[in-house]
Automatic annotation (TrEMBL), chain A:
Database matches in InterPro entries: ELP6 (IPR018627), P-loop_NTPase (IPR027417)
Signal peptide residues on this chain, from the entry's feature table: none
Recorded family membership: Belongs to the ELP6 family.
Protein name: Elongator complex protein 5
Gene Ontology biological-process annotations: tRNA wobble uridine modification
GO cellular component terms, semicolon-separated: elongator holoenzyme complex
Domain of life, per lineage: Eukaryota
Pathway(s) where this gene product acts: tRNA modification; 5-methoxycarbonylmethyl-2-thiouridine-tRNA biosynthesis
From TrEMBL, chain B:
GO biological process: one example: tRNA wobble uridine modification
Highest taxon of source: Eukaryota
Listed InterPro entries: Elongator_complex_protein_4 (IPR008728), P-loop_NTPase (IPR027417)
Protein name: Elongator complex protein 4
Main location: cytoplasm
Similarity comment: Belongs to the ELP4 family.
Annotated source species: Crepidotus variabilis
Pathway(s) where this gene product acts: tRNA modification; 5-methoxycarbonylmethyl-2-thiouridine-tRNA biosynthesis
PANTHER family: ELONGATOR COMPLEX PROTEIN 4, PAX6 NEIGHBOR PROTEIN PAXNEB
GO terms for cellular component: cytoplasm; elongator holoenzyme complex; transcription elongation factor complex
Alphabetically ordered keywords of this record: Cytoplasm, Nucleus, tRNA processing
Compartments, as annotated in UniProt: Cytoplasm; Nucleus
Region (Disordered): 102-133
Lineage, broadest ranks: Eukaryota, Fungi, Dikarya, Basidiomycota, Agaricomycotina
Extent of Acidic residues compositional bias: 118-130
Amino acid sequence: MTPLLPPFDLPEDIVLLIVDELAAPADFILHKALAEHLKSPARRGDSPETKLSPNKVVILSASESFQRWKALASKSNLQLQNYINNGSVSFIPVGSDICDDDSGRKLRDVFSVISEKITTANTYSRLLIFDDISSLEWMGIPNIQLQQFLRAVRAMCLKHRVTLLIRHHLLSPDESEPDELFRFLLQICTHHLAVHPLASGRSGAVTGEISLHKGFSAPDHDNVRLIHRSSAIQYNLVDSGPDFFAKGTSGGVL
Amino acid sequence: MSSFKRKATGKQVLNVYPGTRISPASNLSLITSTGISSLDDILGGGLPLSCSLVFAAPDIHSSYGDLIQKYFIAQGLASGHRVCLVTPNPREFLKDLMWSPKGSQSSTAVGDASAVDSDGEEEKDGDDQDSESKKVKIAWRYEKMKQFKTTVGTSAGANSDREVYCQNFDLSCTIPEEVISDALRTDRLHLLEVSVSGTSGCKTGSALTPTAIVGEIIKFVSSGASAPVRICIPSLGCSAWGDLSAKVIFRFLHSLKAILRDYNYSCASTTLPPSLSAKLWGGPGWLEKVGWASDCLLTLSAFTANPGMSSIFPSHHGLLQTHTLPAPFTFSPPSDRFSTLRGLTSSGENNLAFKCTRRRLIFETLHLDVEGGTGERRTTASKLMDDGVPVGTQKDTETKPKIASVEVQMEGVFEEKKSPVVKKKKRAVAFQSDRPELYEF
């Protein structure tokens, strides 16, 4: 089985929480996961041994349009429209009208759509990307409804062995306490990937740094190499995607 | 398989409208000018269509946020774009819109002056400085270096379409009435009046809630794709909008962003009023939330309420802070690669500031003065320096008992106090060729 998201080498079937800040958005992690999942030869379903349909990815997008997903996927030589057409990728947009109804009925509708896409796909490997949970909270969906929704999605992913990626935005992490939703997400995730901007401000050679922590739901026997904040991997975003390097070894430094 | 791959298809599939250009970062998106060339540079060439731009203007004594919106509308009208203005008093807002000076629109000669040179006040100073600088002998190794500049000029190149892309607006000129009436008549300018009561001549005849405004915007944007659409919302959430919560404003901005993505020939510029521009207005991290709900968030912090800052930076009127910048089809904002003012290609990000002269608003890099940031002494002089008497010699005067005294003067009789005029001795520095190790002061 090919590890997920090199150089972090995460196992499959995990619940990965990705947190980012406004100065260092983690879009590229989601796009990298999507591209690698669709392109990885180990997961290619059309091999004669497996006899399974191609890999399946469900994108639940609350903040970005399909056009942007398509444009950024093309930088990894992926024609997303073709994958949509053959059913490998399902794109579910979530608009601001989701909070028109206070009873949480619309969230239940979204869950049933995801559930249908995931359970009907008879594939070797499945990935669910939820690109922005914070926007739903800021739009006014009650916390309790969001937590119920997340709990249901997580249970479904564990049951069907689906890898789940959830992105959450941190707000001024140095000044304020972690909010309730973030604490809940830390509880349900198995791993926690944090993308931070440089504390010294924007730089031309280094965009930000990434650390990897264990979540509260991580299994005991876990071989993932964790990355502490003090030895975080740094990255530089170029046109084609991120370049990773160890701290202090960027092009501008050496 | 060859390791070489073609970087770009080279096919131009986009319909380039007047007043727009293909983005230097991606041939999938078009950019358009905000009306201020230096702001365009900060955005990476201009505002991409399908993107929303939000300004936070926390200063209550100034209206630089409104000024930028006026530039945005004026540029839209000059480029023949369709403009939708959403504000409590749209007619009043349009009254003092800036415009290009007569003759400059047709001639191409105006634009080649730099931003600072084309300003009336500084033109004179600039001439003086030029003549002065000719006299100065510059060391040969520095002679060929470019002159230090703090901002970018209107001329980004020798393109003939330059004038159409970013007009050379003059704040001392106001827009002719016929331009507005013509735009209204042809429906290129659409006014949406926001009012709580809906009695003050509101076009729709009733109070417009944010949801209704979103509906009106969709109606206007979807009515035609013949020209790019600019949505301009000065002071979103001010008192005329009613008592809006942070969630409602977030949802409005989120919906606006979704509309722009659906109709990719449109763009929007919004200003938050001072009360909503406070960092903690809608709870912790309010401005960051706004940044996530829009494509670009900039803060204009004017110095009017802070005399300390104005004295430190006398040549600027405020600071510009970039929170997030538009990147519609790329991982990183094109501004990181193409902005001269931000300067990220060479090193860390520059500090940015703005100044408003008699004729234009300019964004530029912020630097301390050559002497270290101050033109005059800011600490009080020591006693010894004040009157020439050493401090120790005043001891005996201090030991004398102090008696309270009141000075009484006859009414109408004023003694003219002549303050002694002490002429400061000019400090002369000279280099003596016969004694190279010594300077004479």
